[in-house]
Amino acid sequence: MTATEFGLEFGLNSFGEVATDGGRTLSDAETVRLLIEEARLAESVGIDVFSVGEHYRAGHNDSATPVLLAAIATATERIRLGTAVTVLSTNDPYG
After folding, report:
1. How many CA atoms lie within 13 A of 61 on its CB side?
2. For 1-22, how does the pLDDT look when each residue is reduced to its tens digit (9 = 90+)?
3. 77: containing domain
4. Sequence-separated (6 or more) residues with CB below 8 Å from residue 1
């Protein structure tokens, strides 16, 4: 039996940390490509959900979570996508 048949789902969260490769800090574009590849890998091994958190600080490049999720959606087929963190103070409900 699979985990889903038991009513279990497995998910991963990412916070878009800027990645490094052998001591070299990857560019934002390289980090986004890596994030998309991580979601593709998660899907290929049977992970059910992949979520991205929103952050606005150095060392993270995930301040536009819906855009990142849209990019991941174009590269995946069945994995469910979501937000792990939404910073409400940056969303003006009256704006």
Report:
1. 15
2. 566 677 889 999 888 888 888 8
3. 11-49+63-88
4. none
